Every structure is written in C-alpha cells, then in structure tokens.
Amino acid sequence: MIDDLLQKLRSGELPPDEYVEKTYEKLERIENRVHAFITIRNKEEVLNEVKKKVKEKGKLSGILIAIKDNISTKGIRTTCASKMLEDYIPPYNATVIERLEREGAVIIGKTNMDEFAMGSTTETSYFGPTRNPWDLERTPGGSSGGSGAALAAGIVDIALGSDTGGSIRAPAAYTATFGLKPSYGTVSRYGLVAYANSLEQIGPMAKNAEDLWLLYSIIAGDDFRDATTISYTPPPSPANVELKDIKIGVLSDIMEASDKSVSSVVKTALDKLSSYGVQIEETKLGYTEYALPAYYIIAMSEASSNLARYDGVRYGFNSYFQGDWKQTYSLNREYGFGIEVKRRILLGSFILSAGYYEQYYIKALKIRNLIKTSLDSLLKKYTVLASPTMPILPPKLGEVIEDPVKMYAMDLNTVLANLAGIPALSMPVGFYNNLPVGLQLMGPYLSDDLLVGIAIKAEKILGYYNLTASL
Ligand code: GLN
Into which CATH architecture does domain 2-239+448-462 fall? Predict the structure, then answer.
C-alpha cells in the first residue's frame, strides 16, 4: 500500500537509496524478459528527485510511478510506441503529470503500449511486445500493457494508463491488478496524445483498490485546458457501502459471450460475495452484437482525423525525401506508422467519406445511444453491473495479432463503458490455470467513488490484491 510505503520513506525506515536501488535492481533482472518500459529514466536523476521529494508533504512524496507513453511528460521522450514519435520530447506536461508532481510523485519511466493505443495486447508497439509477468509466453493485455506489467512485476505500486475501449481494464485483468476507466470528463485529457477523444480517459492503475482511489483522487478534477472536463472535485474518500445494500446486476449476455474459463471464475467470486450478503441478480443488456462495430466505427473515424497531424514536417518521423509535398507527406506516413494504425486511418477516412458517413458513422452513433440508454436504465435498478473484464484468458503472443477481427473481439465487454461515458473498474478475482481473471464493475455516471468503495470491500472478501508475479 502506498500509505505504508510513504510512512516508511518518511520515517527513514526505507531510505531513498535503498528504495531506488532495489527498484532498479529488479528492473535490471527482469526488464529484458518483460519489456514493460519504452524509456527508463537515469537512476541518479530519479534518486535525486526522490531524495528531494521525500521531505515534502504531498500525497505521493517520493513515490515512483510509471506513466503510459502516450501521456506528455516535459523533457521525457513520449513515443506513443510509434516510429512516428520515436524521438519526440514534449515541451510541456500533461495536466495529470502536473498534478502528480505537485503531490511529489517521481516518474521512473514511460511504459510500453500498443502504437497510438490501438490494440489490446501491446503487440502493435513499434518497440516490440510486452510480456505478461504471470506467464511470459502471453500478452499482458493492452494497450496499457506496460503499465500493467510494471505493476505485476513489482517494479512500481502505481501507474497511469489510458482507456479508449478497455486499455486500462484489459491489462488490469490480465496482470491481476486494479484499473479504473473514469467517468468521461472527470480527468483532463490535456497532454494525452489523442486517439478517439469522445471515448477516452486517462485513468489509475494499482495493486489494490485503496491506491487506485488515491491516484484517481489526485488526477481527477476539471481543467480549463480540456473543455470536455466537467466541474468536478472527487469526494474526499471512496463510498462506504454496506454489503447488504449492494445490488449487482450480472450481465448474462456478456457472461454467455465470454469463455467458460473466465466466466466460471467470475461466477465463483460473485457467489462468494453473495454469501457475504451482496445481492446478486442476472440481467440482460441487449444490443451487445452491435457494440463492437459501433465502437470501432467511432474510434477509427476519430483516429483518422486525429492522426492527420502527423506529417513529419514540424515534428515526427521524416523520410527526408526530396519530392513534392504529397510524395514526402505520404512517405513520412507510410514509414512512420505501423500496419494497425494505417488500417485504422484508412478505414476511418472511408467511413467519414461522403455517402458512407450516414451509412456507418451516423448508425454507429445511434447504436451508441441505444447502449447508453440501456445501461442507464439498468443502473437505475442495480448499484453496479458485473461481467468478466475480458471474454478470454490472456492469449499467447502472436495468437490474435495476425487477425484484427480476433483482436477486436477481445474488447466486447469493455467498450460498453466508453460508449456510454460511465465509469468501469477491473479487479482481480482469481486464476484459471494460473492465469489471472478480472471482474468488471460498471456504475452510473460519476459513481467512480462507489465503484472503488465496492472494490475495497470485495478485495478483502476475495483476497486477490497486492499480488506480484514471481520472476
Ligand atoms: N483495443 C481497443 C482499440 O484498439 C481499445 C484500445 C484503447 O482503449 N486504447 O481501440
């Protein structure tokens, strides 16, 4: 727990040298097997910062944190796991970074991810895949796979991810850690390299629900630099709910669409919660077969517009081809982007073209609305809705990446919350054949404190928290 760590650092029981030394020793021992990071900061620099910060009275004074590499960090390379931004050093900090630094957090490095956050396995990274600390043959999920792996491997206790359609929750589920996709508009996206603005949020990742809240409460809040943030101050603590007052609606259509391996573990966990007085009932969402197509149409459309800025002229990969601007521009983009990113730019541009716009984009928006309405009405009946976070166990590296449709199918359970803008949390609830399984809880808009409050109760009952894979 961060509180204990903070206490040890403050009291001198854990001197900064020892804390930093141990962390870097571990990195040295395992990073070449796991590959959680794209950039690791210089040890001396980090140590000096920790030494300085420990003396301050912030909520994270001297605590090391790992940051997903699509979040802008002043003076620290921010690549988005793309050749396009391989050498890009942002001249400014994202708002979330400013907030973390104000509380004394020290960035240890930038974590690996799918290129421009497009993917579910961290395999589309230009820098090569991250491996799952629980089984090195397998993916840690994505796109914030490096952050999940850094937590599970015991390098850091807190990390930031971003979630457009599940990118925080997938790695949380696959690495037996906790992740929250916040309510849309509660966390500033200023300084997050945009993929699909209407869907995504930066969010916290941690090894227990308490630390998840601590991190969320620091990064959340309105920001004049992001007009989509709402006027919001996170409550002082997560909701304290009585177990008997929690009514969980289990989404049967999502349970059925998920593999037995994961749904059985989730069911066992829910049964256990029920034996402690939580009310559990089955319910149905509907429209689930349209969720993925709607999500991908919207995400790709927004991506095609967002990624138009990368022309290699002002910054980014430059082929230095001396031709007319069209050829130069095309070559920069042809060599700067990977295959998955190009696929999405092409499809997104097609979807938004005259004639197809109504056929695809407008229809997708209508489906988005139907799903949102259905979720909202269920959330009037139930405190939260539950399902497995991922429909399958962590796949082996190479297993889904060759077939994009297979990879997209992994996001069925997670895209719902992004389409609706509601908060969703993933927490570890057990293992199947030694592979982690995550439970997803979705709550009404702005119920982030309630989701975390329930997770705090549930983790104590189920016992899966503060887990580290042995490597
Ligand atoms: N896997 C989904 C996608 O590729 C979600 C990614 C994300 O949340 N950034 O779009």
Answer: Alpha-Beta Complex (3.90)
